[in-house]
């Protein structure tokens, strides 16, 4: 591996977050290298269904909800831009999200969500059982109530990750795959260079003016030698994909189970949340749990054609909030710990990090997400 002294920014991590950041920095005229330990988008970016659904998941107002809503509003333009730059389709769908109840507990949860979101002035509609079944054929006869959230959209996160990586390359970003950052080397309280190793075992030191840590579950390991504590842990998520006899018109959720439509009549089913270290196995128990949830919503699902199952590791934090911004090391910016919201938060994270590096500040309120909150 050769050394380099001419890059403006090195981004550690080539998932959707890291590549989105790199794209914005390249568009600002900076020379950027991305170091990716495997294949771009293969970890947390793939362990997702691509739901852009802050209203469906966050039931109270606050800074994090505002951040998620801001990123959701950015998505139509972001998706178009990435498609234009890459020439690839990302399957951005504006059909909305249907929340349904298959139990009394879920019914109460939906009622609570509806009242809370109405108080916040958000767009959400109550549907009778008849209206729910008219909207989506084949739903369980037990479902007699639902909420329609028109603003919660979805996107094919795997297509998006590939498109953003290609857009980066076309904008001149150097993406080094199978290249692992080993450690940052400091000089005068700044990161001077990063030591990395590639698949062949060769190692080298790479220099830049700024560094972005977007390495997902591996971020804490790189930060620790710098005296920076990131309270992070990997959350194992399993996914399945089926082919349906007819298209599913929109995202359907019941409790923790969800069905997310793709093109060509494919449906993604998710997901599990397991804290078992860095284990990534697809398990029978995980598959059974997801299939049970899918059949509870759509009984015919048990006869749908199975296509594949996979898993990945999501970077969770002690407070389940992302880690954004800088700290005592002025040229090191964090963009990690997005947990279940990495796909949703990619556009706003890229905006924030680009602004911090190019302008030295951001208009977004990021104090709740600073890495210093985990200091002893």
Can you tell me about this structure?
With 376 residues, the protein is of the alpha/beta class. The chain has helices spanning 16-27, 54-57, 63-86, 104-119, 129-135, 157-170, 219-223, 284-297, 342-358, and strands at residues 4-12, 32-35, 51-52, 97-100, 125-128, 145-149, 153-154, 174-176, 179-187, 190-198, 203-213, 232-243, 251-254, 257-261, 266-270, 305-317, 323-325, 332-336. The strands form 3 sheets. Strands 1, 2, 8, 9, 10, 11, 17 and 18 form an 8-stranded mixed beta sheet that branches. The longest helix is centred in the first third of the chain and has 24 residues, at 63-86. The two termini are 37 Å apart.
Element layout with pairings:
Elements: E1 4-12, H1 16-27, E2 32-35, E3 51-52, H2 54-57, H3 63-86, E4 97-100, H4 104-119, E5 125-128, H5 129-135, E6 145-149, E7 153-154, H6 157-170, E8 174-176, E9 179-187, E10 190-198, E11 203-213, H7 219-223, E12 232-243, E13 251-254, E14 257-261, E15 266-270, H8 284-297, E16 305-317, E17 323-325, E18 332-336, H9 342-358
Parallel strand pairs: 1-2, 1-11, 2-8, 4-13, 11-18
Antiparallel strand pairs: 3-7, 4-6, 5-6, 9-10, 10-11, 12-15, 12-16, 13-14, 14-15, 17-18
Helix pairs in contact: 1-6, 1-9, 3-6, 3-9
